[in-house]
């Protein structure tokens, strides 16, 4: 089955958002504000001592979990909009109410896989530390850094759809969700990578606008990723 191009997916995203930017912009602001408020409270409450450092790591973990749940809720809101369903701000708390442990476990698995992908580079650092006076040690470290980079990139692309798959199948096991994501991305990794890279230009415009442009850019990018997911599961073909 022929998949849609990046331009077609972006056109779909613009069509869905046209005249309806208010809700995703408001949801994006609310999400960012909630995350920043939590992180700010953590920095104020955590003591500045040795014990505070340990507590800080724990609270940072809690903040990361909260952020992941909230961002998944944001995807749920956009997914509802893309499907022509009623979308509301309360969609943001959907992951908090529906199998939140699955979202957390998926995030933990991604984190552990990322660490595993970094092992070659860590090995390179050890070799460099032991034989730093040898040029070959630096070459090996750089090569292993490149290996780790490509492992992380491959892993990120393979499991890029897990949270959207969770939203459609919240009671499915984490193992099955990750398997389905990897299966869906077979033959689509380069297409997805190209889609992400194609946003570099507009992201730079957002930076130039001192971040104000991201109020519109963030929903646009996120909605396009939602449309990519819908294309992967052949949902677009069912509209005709």
From TrEMBL:
InterPro entries (UniProt xref): DUF975
The keyword Cell wall biogenesis/degradation belongs to this UniProt entry's keyword annotation: no
TM annotation in the entry: 21-42, 54-82, 103-129, 135-153, 192-217
Phylogenetic placement of the source organism: Bacteria, Bacillati, Bacillota, Clostridia, Lachnospirales
Superkingdom as given in the UniProt entry: Bacteria
Keyword annotations from UniProtKB, A to Z: Membrane, Transmembrane, Transmembrane helix
Pfam family, one: DUF975
UniProt name for this protein: DUF975 family protein
